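This part of the workshop introduces the protein records we will be handling. To make this concrete, we reproduce a full record directly below.
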Amino acid sequence: GGDHTITYPILQAVAEKHGPVGLVHVDAHTDTGDRALGEKIYHGTPFRRCVEEGLLDCGRVVQIGIRGSSYDPDPYKYCQDQGFRVVPAEECWRKSLVPLMGEVRQQMGDKPVYISFDIDGIDPAYAPGTGTPEIAGLTPAQALEIIRGCKGLTIVGCDLVEVAPMYDASGNTALLGANLLFEMLCVLPAVKTM
């Protein structure tokens, strides 16, 4: 729960202990804007603030499912200039993400990694309960492939954000969010699963 702003102070604390970390970021948006309504800290800016503070190991940042609307004519430029790997949603359509996650595991190596999962990375057909739904997103099965594909990484923390149950009378978004969090707990280091 919470909006994506919560990831910023969490990563401040994580970096204080581990230094700059890699990031597996699932989202419809890059969340690297500079400001909105005059504010530098809001749910569309956390990863720009993290870059500015040296909290991220930018060569080990991957953003998956990106597709959202933007105020910028080149919405991925900032990310690519920092060395992030941006995987637009259309590169994920109609296929398994297991091969992608093999590449991500190599990119992350054995250094600390944080997982940040915005529920709007999932298509609103499955997760309408969010404040910024964007069509043509990931499926729940692909979300599981991403999270399960992180098993074996040196995960030092994770979050799942932007769930807004009041926008989903069915309760499906909250159910999906809870299951994805459970899956994240299962891939933490030293967790034994059957």
The first helix runs from residue 7 to 18. Residues 4-187 form a domain with the Arginase; Chain A fold (CATH 3.40.800.10). The mean pLDDT is 96. The longest strand covers residues 56-66.
